[in-house]
Design a protein that fits this description.
The complex is a heterodimer of chains A (about 260) and B (about 300). Chain A has about 260 residues and is α+β, with helices and mostly antiparallel strands. In chain A, the strands form 3 sheets. Chain A has a 6-stranded mixed beta sheet with strand order 2-12-11-4-7-8. A 4-stranded antiparallel beta sheet of chain A has the order 1-3-10-9, with no helix packed on it. A two-stranded antiparallel sheet of chain A has the order 5-6. The radius of gyration of chain A is 26 Å and the shape is flat. In chain A, about 30% of the residues are buried. Helix content of chain B is about 70%, strand content about 5%. In chain B, a hairpin with a 4-residue loop joins strand 3 and strand 4. The two termini of chain B are about 35 Å apart. Chain B has one domain. A two-stranded antiparallel ribbon of chain B has the order 1-2. A two-stranded antiparallel sheet of chain B has the order 3-4. Classes of the chains: A alpha+beta (about 260), B mainly alpha (about 300). Chains A and B meet through strand 5, strand 6, helix 5, helix 6 and helix 7 of A and strand 1, helix 3, helix 5, helix 8 and helix 9 of B. Strand 5 of chain A pairs antiparallel with strand 5 of chain B.
């Protein structure tokens, strides 16, 4: 009896890693490079993912949840607040936000509070708020919170901070897709796409892809010239101004 | 039709930008002012970053004043000597102004100084011109001869120089000094200063209106060429695509403006310019005092390194 129990225990121990095996996830983007040309007005990139499970994978009571977080190149923001001083409105106070993604898109299959706890959201950097500061909103005094709310609102209106609780769509129970919309004002540089898989509030898997937003052709050459051959670029613009002005006076010469 | 600006890093509507260039060019050709005081706020309103707006419109004004200067030269309406003296003072002032600009920016007070200066400067200059031109207009309607000009205050200053084209003999001290002050104001506020130079030449030095426009454009041309090169070399904020779009519109506008300006009588010319300056001043006063739609503004800062 005890021998049989020992064998059973050993079997259980051997099976345990397999039984606890979590899902694997494979993700891909529709492109790895967004090229800015003279007619560029923004872009769309599609993220795909497949959740792989086999017979050993634990069965899940509920459906899977996916959060896709897109982070653009980091930058600092200064948020200023106008206050009434006498008859005029002047900038009085400001707050700095250091190292915030210049583009931030949080796409999910359900509203974030339904997917996982606030603590895990914060630790896994899920949600726009968690990127702005390590301190949760509710711990901030009203006065300080207002700056963060303003940053979120203004960048949100410009399409650079996005939080879409219906941004990830499941095509089958294990295949999903998410559309990432980049406004034309999104900065050039390297973008990170982090895909996180949850079930029953627990993180199961994580995958990262990247894509690049870069100027090409004419736009790239102009930007390079402006930064590398500064004086030559300046003189070239001045020469063009003179040329245009002179041409116009020839074209319009009547008297 | 949208086109992407490689330095400003945003798309704009080509035709809208060209139309703005044409409108500002028209006024600039008509009054012999650079138009920077109109162009900079318009571009910022369209969402162009302020540093790029200020630097790029310099290139457009240079183009518009090339046309204007050439036209004036053909009509022999430039006082070269006066223009060079003003240019010298202006360049000196620009150098001082850039230093002040950087100091204010370090202190974090640049925005306030700019708006308050716009309101004060435009309000004072505009009101003075308006009052004067209305007086002149009503005097003429009543058939009263305008009063003979009072002897100018700068009559007894030393270092006198004769400007036969302008029928002027004046000391270099007020001429260079005022050009310098305008240069300072210009580089701090991101404007060429033509709209101050024109009334100063008309009222303080009694230079004929026909000559003022050409001479002012001559001075603006070289100031703006210098500003374009310096902005490009020090801040990399000149957007060549934006500059060309503005210029194409601007040169056309300036042509028609110059024609319209030639048909204006002196008093009407001054009245219109006064109203234009006052309108811009009021616009800034409104911005300063009206309850803002959004109390918060965001300034992105590059992560250095």
């Amino acid at each position: 009896m005890s021998r049989a129990a020992a064998i059973l225990l050993a079997m259980a121990a051997a099976a345990a890693p397999a039984a606890a095996r979590a899902e694997q996830m494979v993700t891909a983007l529709s492109g790895s490079r967004v090229e800015i040309t003279s007619t560029y007005t923004g872009a769309e990139i599609v993220a795909f993912g497949v959740i792989e499970r086999d017979l050993k994978t634990v069965s899940r009571a509920g459906a899977y949840d996916v959060v896709v977080t897109v982070r653009g190149p980091a930058r600092n923001f200064i948020v200023r607040q106008k206050e009434r001083v006498g008859f005029a409105w002047l900038n009085r106070e400001q707050r700095r936000f250091i190292g915030v993604p210049s583009y931030l898109s949080v796409l999910s299959s359900r509203p974030l509070p339904d997917i996982t706890s606030p603590q895990l959201q914060r630790r896994l950097r899920v949600g726009v708020d968690t990127h702005l500061s390590v301190i949760p909103d509710e711990l901030l005094p009203e006065r300080e919170r207002a700056y963060r709310v303003a940053l979120r609102r203004i960048e949100g209106e410009a399409g650079r901070f996005v939080e879409d609780p219906a941004g990830v769509a499941f095509l089958t129970p294990t295949l999903f897709r998410a559309s990432i919309y980049l406004p034309a004002t999104a900065r050039t540089g390297l973008y990170e796409v982090e895909t996180q898989l949850f079930a029953d509030g627990t993180p199961l898997a994580r995958a990262v892809n990247t894509f690049e937003v870069a100027k090409t052709g004419f736009e790239q050459r102009i930007a390079e010239a402006a930064h590398q051959a500064r004086w030559a670029y300046g003189f070239a613009v001045a020469a063009i101004s003179l040329l245009f002005g002179w041409l116009a006076s020839i074209v319009f010469r009547r008297d | 039709m949208q086109i992407y600006l490689p330095i400003a890093e945003m798309p704009v509507d080509m035709f809208l930008i060209a139309a703005i260039g044409a409108a500002v060019g028209f006024l600039s050709g008509m009054f012999g002012v650079g138009g920077g005081f109109l162009m900079t706020p318009l571009l910022i309103f369209l969402g162009i970053p302020p540093a790029i707006a200020v630097a790029t419109q310099a290139a457009q004004i240079a183009a518009a004043s090339t046309t204007g200067t050439l036209a004036a030269l053909r009509r022999d309406a430039v006082d070269m000597r006066l223009g060079l003296v003003l240019l010298g003072g202006g360049l000196l002032g620009t150098a001082i102004g850039v230093a002040i600009f950087n100091m204010l920016r370090r202190l974090g007070q640049l925005d306030i100084v700019i708006v308050v200066s716009y309101v004060t400067l435009f309000g004072v200059v505009g009101t003075l011109m308006l009052v004067e031109s209305i007086k002149a207009l009503t005097a003429r309607r009543r058939g009263v001869q305008p009063l003979p000009p009072k002897p100018p205050w700068h009559r007894d200053l030393p270092w006198r120089m004769a400007f036969p084209r302008a029928g002027l003999e004046a000391s270099l001290i007020p001429l260079v000094g005022i050009a310098m002050l305008i240069g300072i104001a210009g580089s701090v506020l991101g404007i060429g200063g033509g709209f101050i130079m024109v009334p100063v030449l008309i009222y303080m030095f009694r230079v004929p209106v026909a000559l003022v426009v050409g001479t002012s454009q001559f001075q603006i041309l070289f100031t703006m060429l210098g500003a374009t090169v310096l902005h490009a070399a020090t801040n990399q904020t000149v957007d060549i695509v934006l500059a060309m779009l503005l210029t194409v519109g601007g040169v056309f506008g300036a042509q028609f403006g110059a024609r319209a300006g030639r048909n204006l009588k002196g008093e009407a010319f001054r009245l219109l310019l006064a109203l234009l300056i006052l309108a811009v001043g009021l616009r800034f006063a409104f911005e300063l005092t009206a309850t803002p739609q959004d109390r918060y503004t965001i300034a992105p800062v590059e992560v250095s390194g």
